[in-house]
Here is the input.
Amino acid sequence: MSYNGLQGRLPYSLGQLQTLQKIDLSHNMLVGRIPSVIGSHNNLTGPIPDTLSGLKSFEYLLMENNPLNTKLPWFMGTLVNLTVLSLSTCGLVGTIPPSFCWLDQLIVLSLDRNNLHGTVPPKLGALPNLCQLNLSQNQLSGELYFSSEFVQRLGKKLDASGNDGLCTGHQFNEQVSQYLGIPPCADQTAKSSDTSHHENSNPYWTDASNAIIKKPMLLYLIWCNLIGFL
Here is the structure.
């Protein structure tokens, strides 16, 4: 049903099709709140409805390029027959639910170009059938706890770049970190330390809030609009 110029809203009765495995409504002109099944490249908004939790036979869920602007619901991890889940460029916020690690049949997971934050659930890297994982261009942070075997298996189909707070652990050598576009955690710590040192490196500045300076060397009070007594 893609590329058919469909307009208006999708009927909520679609959520009653419990044996539905695949439906493609992408590249139409659908609007309104998300019903129980959706297509990409429309103008559908969030939140993602709980009625989706009843579609246990669902295998493909493609929502990319819809202004959902909502959190990822925990129940999506119960759609255990999902093989493809694409939520790219949906304005998603919040964290990646640990329940996503239950999706053992998942082959493709795309969560790129959103506003997701927090850490990446380590067990995502243990999904046995996962062949493509895109977490790029979010606000994820912390250590990426994926095994080197997982990284090698996915190769270029693993993308977590564009997350400034994300770093790789000791299980990755420098070449792998460069390949992923993610710095080692040691570098992140050093950078943070350097920034802190730089902020307090001005030789003319000291925190004197609890001190009595008996022999001041320099005291700058210009452009302060001071009133009253010192």
